[in-house]
Amino acid sequence: MLMTEWSTRAARPADLVQLPALLADTCDPAVIPSPEHLANAIACDLVRVAESDGSVVGCIVTEMPSPGHARLSVIAVRDGMRRQGMASRLLAEMVRGIPQQPNERPLISVVVRTEELALARLLLQGGFIGTRVIRTGPVNDSVHIHYQYKLRVEYIDPDARHLVPVDAREQLMESLAPADHAVTALVTLTGAPAFEIARFEQDDPATLQSGEAAAGIAFSGSILAAITFLLGFAFVSTRFPDDVRLLLIAATFSTVLSLIVYASASGELARIRSNSFGRIMKWGNVLSEYGGVFPFLISLPVTYAQVSDEPWTTMVLAVLISAAIAWYERSEFSIAYRFRRSRSEVTLMALTAISPTVGAGLVAAHAVSWPWTTVLTATLAARTWLYLFRRGAESGIAERRQWQIRE
């Protein structure tokens, strides 16, 4: 098959000239949006198109009946342009580009007839699952499956899966009747298409949140104890820089605040206000990491420089800690990994990573260290402000497959 170059972009009002013809050539007339609907969807940035040589050869149209729910209306690709990944890219870009409320991702759904196997396969490969059967006509009419995009990572029971032929409507309806069952794949069974039905494991949100809050309290309490010990040593030592003492005092204050925040999260959980739990935990996590953990780790080589007075050993320790912080920042365990990164944020991450080496070098050389402390404090404060006020809810799982088989 000859591959043709094409690209995707957001639809523009000028595309209303070509879109009706594309939809008329590729879609069932019953699902084609009206010109008014198309114009409104384009104005709301809910339409994406694929373009080749100036012609619109594919599109995906979405509507938002409510701020928390996006419904895929139609996806179309012109004959001769199929099997090139165009529909998959349009679907992925639509999922990423749906407008959302602060700290809330909308539900993305689509209703598909069981006979539309190509569209069902596209959705299942794109992170959707079929959650229920919808019948919109008489008993003998075709049934529809409601697909929705998985917003959270969940696990399926590997021992609770079964196959249902596509044309076995009654069995399909029975299999999807339980709320924890869903269509997760489209396979071939004895030469005919069949749906794979899987059972999702149901977690207790209250138990999980309670455990998360308890872990946060225990972790911040341990960090507070370590910082307090280091601060006590700083006050005993007559050569310890005053600016580093102030940094440790600020770290103590921030860690205490994180403990208060975690305790508040436990209180919200006790009141069954789970919508506030995630937001409060984000405050506790950010304050604990950037106000407590990083100042403590960065101060360790400075403390060693005061005790040992051995420049070479001090610098080796400082470089190792800088390398460890740099690795951690790029790993999936860090808070920074959970948010999208900008160029300025990468600069702040680099300043954080080199701080142990710079600070230890200044102290080992008996140089003035307050400019370093000032820059470090400003860097950590900027990152705290960035994640608390300039970033939405924690992400990082959006690019992973939204269901997994628990081993």
Tell me the layout of helices and strands:
Blueprint: E1 7-10, H1 19-26, H2 35-43, E2 47-52, E3 55-66, E4 69-77, H3 86-97, E5 107-113, H4 117-125, E6 128-134, E7 144-149, E8 154-165, H5 169-175, E9 181-189, E10 192-200, H6 205-236, H7 242-270, H8 274-308, H9 311-330, H10 343-364, H11 370-389, E11 403-405
Parallel strand pairs: 4-5, 8-11
Antiparallel strand pairs: 1-2, 2-3, 3-4, 5-7, 6-7, 8-10, 9-10
Helix pairs in contact: 6-7, 6-8, 7-8, 7-11, 8-9, 8-10, 8-11, 9-10, 10-11
Structural overview:
By secondary structure, this protein is α+β, with helices and mostly antiparallel strands. The protein has three domains: 8-105, 3-Layer(aba) Sandwich (Aminopeptidase); 109-202, no CATH class; 205-389. 50% of the residues lie in helices and 21% in strands. It has eleven helices and eleven strands. It has helices at residues 19-26, 35-43, 86-97, 117-125, 169-175, 205-236, 242-270, 274-308, 311-330, 343-364, 370-389; strands at residues 7-10, 47-52, 55-66, 69-77, 107-113, 128-134, 144-149, 154-165, 181-189, 192-200, 403-405. Strands 1-2-3-4-5-7-6 form a seven-stranded mixed β-sheet. Strand 4 (69-77), helix 3 (86-97) and strand 5 form a beta-alpha-beta unit. Helix 6 (205-236) packs parallel to helix 8 and helix 10 (343-364) runs antiparallel to helix 11. The two termini are 40 Å apart.
